[in-house]
Amino acid sequence: MISLGIPEDDISPDATREEAGLDSIAVVELALVLRREKGLAVTEEEIGAAATVADVAALVASR
User: Fold this and answer.
1) Which residues on neighbouring strands pair with residue 52, listed in sequence order?
2) How far apart are CA 17 and CA 49, in angstroms?
3) What is the domain partition of the chain in residue ranges?
4) Given pLDDT bands bounded at 50, 70 and 90, which one contains residue 1?
């Protein structure tokens, strides 16, 4: 499990990235963690293009 310090109860699938606390710094950190710890080729640009938490999850699941 990856933790960026955002309480799980505060996140819903339809929340925007910003509502979930995924600002530009968190997007970079998430992409780095996904590459280093999970071996997933996900770029900051791809995460940044995702509109909602569900979109980010779908992106990760597709890899």
Assistant:
1) 16
2) 10
3) 17-61
4) very low
Amino acid 6 reads I
Region 21-48 average pLDDT: 92
In the block, tokens 């979930």 appear at 20
The span from the CA of 43 to the CA of 53, in Å, is: 16
Residue 24 confidence (pLDDT) above 50: yes
Among residues 58, 22, 60, the alpha carbon closest in space to that of 43 is found at: 60
CA distance 58 to 52: 10
**CA terminus-to-terminus distance, the chain:** 16
Identify any residues that bridge with 16 across adjacent strands, giving them in sequence order: 52
Q: Is the CB of residue 10 less than 8 Å from the CB of residue 22?
A: no
